[in-house]
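Notes taken during the Thursday session

The instructor put the following on the board and asked us to keep it in front of us for the whole hour. The protein is ABC transporter related protein. We were told not to look anything up and to reason only from what is written here. First, the residues (252 in total):
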Amino acid sequence: MTTPLIELQRVRFDYHDRTVLRELDFRLAPGDRVALIGSNGAGKTTLLHLLVGLKRPSAGRILAFGCERASERDFHQVRARVGLLFQDSDDQLFCPTVLEDVAFGPLNLGRSPEQARADALETLEHLGLADFAERITYRLSAGEKRLVALATVLAMRPEVLLLDEPTNGLDEATAERLIAHLDGLEQAMILVSHDWPFLARLATRAVRLVEGRLVDAILHSHAHAHRHSHPHPHAADELTGTHTGLEHRHPH
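Then, after some discussion, the predicted structure tokens were revealed:
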């Protein structure tokens, strides 16, 4: 059996007097592209933050690349190999120019200034942002910031991508370009998004957070009267006729 890149074993996370995540078991294998879905406040972002040590579990074990991770030193090693795109781009961008922001991660990994600059410029070019290098970051539009924030992650050449609402603020054409780029990458991914077409195009499987627990889910499309289809999530056993207690919604 292939060793998972990331594994959770009976992980629980409490926030004050509320249990947000309960007894989670999860494995991310090489090549996986997992859609992590759930309602607002379900704990999706919290789960991503646990995987890179920005939050620590109240109970259970987190393993990454074959080793248990518990200390800050452990997670420093994980963050060198796992790229997290924050939900809010302003949490990721803090340098004066785009090039400085995108080169920051490679520099922090110990690459030379010349190599970090080359990696940053190459990443910007791949995302169609070659002309952005000297632009002032805080003057960018929300959609432009989203792409630059993603560039800061990709420039580090991570082995795993954790993408929290990557298409937020993007117009349809830019989102399509982003999907095409991500689809050409080999990294395993966990994708948090309410953009169902995005998930349907990229995800190889889906899990859903319901009342703090993970259940398998399936993304598929329903035709509608307005002559096109939208993908919708279902719990896996909902499609086999087993009652799960989950309310079935069609988000639009």
